[in-house]
What does this fold into?
Amino acid sequence: MKKITVFFIALAFIGCAELQKVVNQLPQGGVLTQEQIGNGLRQALDNGIQHQVSKLTATDGFYKNDLVKILLPEELQAVDKGLRKIGLGNLADEGLKAINRTAEDAVKTATPIFVNAVKEITFADAKNILLGADNAATSYLEGKTTTALYSEFNPVIKNSFAKVGADKIWSNLITKYNSIPFVKKVNPDLTDYVTTEALEGVFTMIAVEEKGIREKVGLRDTALLRQVFALQDNR
It folds into this structure.
């Protein structure tokens, strides 16, 4: 009884933010464990795949999204300029679009790879990640899974090159460029390049969702997300 009286007296002297901290520490409020916080972070990353990465799989999902659009590597920029100089600008545009189409198709096929990566990740210090930067969970996922994801995603990219016809387009482009007198011949590994760029695009879009969940209560669409991210609101 005495403890309850002290608690209500305290209400008159502390602000809303401080009150929330007190409430969070009450036994009946429940203290979140590292495991619960980790599950909340995984839900946020899952939402990133469901709400943001899925956008990449649509036509122009990469090509018309300035956050993730795949540009030409330095070696192929010379190809682009060289083709435009001899009046083949349209062909050069087609080549740029083709590598983005490859990424769009590959992410569509490989989405389960990213879902599984999120399910399997173990957060070493979930609370510190929760209270970290706006993209802390995404960065942690990226650091822990990129190597494994690359090995699984690379053959998907290779298949998508053939599926969307990008392999033939770029073979034609490079053949034409290499036939121009006095240019330095090129033979880039486009599969490696697009794999790396597409993976970066996926993590970029997951980070967009994570930032949104951290900043907008309305995006926390489960009880666990609301409970977990309320902790970072009060930091």
Remarks:
- The chain is about 75% helix and 0% strand.
- Residues 36-234 form one domain.
